[in-house]
Design goal:
Elements (H helix, E strand, L loop, with lengths): L12 E8 L5 H17 L3 E4 L6 H10 L1 E4 L10 E4 L7 H8 L3 E4 L3 H15 L3 E5 L5 H7 L7 E4 L2 H5 L9 E5 L5 H14 L13 H13 L5 E5 L5 H12 L5 E4 L15 E6 L5 H14 L1 E8 L16
């Protein structure tokens, strides 16, 4: 009797709902290019104050090219060429660089710089400024550091709004970190306006287009997903917010992962559809690796869910323009 070959085990079917837009935004793309071009033009090492963007894969690749990441300028030698990260820096940092006669390039995202300009404008108008953001985040430190100590008050929650003590409620303004939850920030702004109806706000929303678009895309895929993965590093604010948006949209199994090797496959028992997105500082190569890992275990159908198309580009510093 002829020997029968046993059939290969069939892989269970799975739909991967791929959020679009996802991954790199224009500000991140510009910041990474600044480091790459500076190394190309000036040679290694190029010192970068703070992680250029919050993603380990990006940082490690740039380190291999010759970037040296430091937390303070004092860690850079006297003849160093220095780049400031996309998150922005307090005014004291370029002042220190000038005092030490360091050559520096500023990779601050132009949308963060816009918030810095707003803060200056409100301060010159004599307004007390509230910054909606997360304590300790480098963008918040940079924004508060544009003005004298005490000129900006940090607001993290609606509860913080209720504790504000005011002697003069007429001259107030608010600004926000660019990578916050759109919905949570709207609630805090509403609370500020309830208490202080005449408070001045930004002409155009401070939360950046990329943060908003990625959160909108997550809201589009979450209702169809049994589980959601967001590719991004733990210190990436916009990536953390995407996980929060998924959970608020009803997905209990929503996880932040650095890449394919961090997936807990046991958490996916019984799933039929998985949502996948990436924070604004996560490269598309990591998305490709996660999709490949799913294909090894499932019969995958990829369905991209696009809410908008981004075509924003930011100019490079003149010193690097080709």
């Amino acid at each position: 009797m002829p020997h029968r070959m046993s059939a290969a085990p069939t892989r269970p079917p799975l739909t991967l709902l791929l959020a679009a837009p996802r991954g790199f935004c224009a500000g991140v793309d510009r910041a990474i290019r600044i480091v790459e071009l500076a190394i190309e033009k000036f040679g290694a090492p190029i010192y970068v104050r703070h992680e250029i963007v919050h993603n380990r894969t990006v940082v490690e690749r740039l380190e291999k090219m010759g970037a040296v990441f430091v937390e303070e300028l004092s860690e850079a030698p006297p003849d160093a060429r220095v780049i400031f990260s996309a998150h922005g820096v307090p005014k004291a940092v370029p002042q220190e660089a000038k005092a030490r006669q360091l050559y520096y390039l500023d990779a601050t995202c132009p949308l963060v710089s816009k918030v810095h300009v707003e803060a200056e404008r409100h301060h010159q108008a004599g307004r007390r400024i509230f910054l909606i953001g997360h304590n300790g985040h480098p963008e918040v430190i940079g924004t508060m550091g544009q003005l004298p100590s005490g000129a900006v008050t940090l607001i993290e929650t609606i509860a913080d709004v209720e504790t504000i003590e005011m002697t003069d409620a007429r001259k107030l303004a608010y600004i926000t970190q660019t990578t916050l939850s759109v919905d949570d920030t709207a609630d805090i702004v509403a609370a500020l306006k309830r208490r202080f109806p005449d408070i001045a706000g930004p002409h155009k929303e401070d939360i950046c287009y990329a943060t908003t678009n990625r959160q909108d895309a997550m809201k589009a895929i979450a209702p169809q997903a049994d589980a959601v993965f967001v590719i991004g590093s733990a210190n990436s604010s916009n990536s953390q917010r995407l996980v929060e948006v998924a959970r608020k949209s009803g997905v209990d199994r929503a996880y932040l992962i650095d890449g394919a090797s961090y997936i807990d496959w046991s958490a996916l028992d019984g799933v039929k559809a998985v949502g996948l997105s990436a924070g604004a500082s996560a490269p598309e190569t990591l998305v490709d690796e996660v999709i490949a890992a799913f294909r090894e275990r499932y019969d995958v159908r990829v369905e991209e869910v696009r809410v908008t198309t981004e075509d924003v580009e930011f100019k490079l510093p003149r010193a690097l323009a080709t």
